[in-house]
């Protein structure tokens, strides 16, 4: 049970880090092809 909780916590932390990276770099990197370029 303790191991499962540790794995869950590590997955949650990595998920939060990826979400933070998506928020930080997403609008410039990922959403750029989706959104039309502004003049």
Protein described:
By secondary structure, the protein is mostly helical. Helices cover 72% and strands 0% of the residues. The protein has one helix at residues 2-29. The N and C termini lie far apart (55 Å). The relative contact order is 0.09. The mean pLDDT is 73.
Q: What is the strand content?
A: under 5%
> In angstroms, what is the radius of gyration?
16 Å
- Number of discrete helical segments: 1
Enumerate the spans where pLDDT stays under 50 for 5 or more consecutive residues. Answer: none
Please provide the count of β strands: 0
How helical, in percent, are the residues? over 70%
Largest sheet: none
Overall pLDDT, averaged? 73
Q: How would you classify the helix and strand content by structural class?
A: mainly alpha
Shape: rod-shaped
- Give the quaternary arrangement of the chains: single chain
**How would you spell out the order of helices and strands?**
H
Q: Cα distance, first to last residue?
A: 55 Å
Topology of helices and strands:
Layout: H1 2-29
Quick summary of this structure?
Helix content is about 70%, strand content about 0%. The chain is mostly helical and about 40 residues long.
């Amino acid at each position: 049970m303790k191991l499962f909780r540790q794995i869950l916590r590590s997955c949650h932390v990595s998920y939060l880090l990826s979400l933070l990276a998506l928020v930080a770099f997403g609008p410039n990197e990922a959403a750029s092809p989706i959104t039309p370029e502004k003049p």
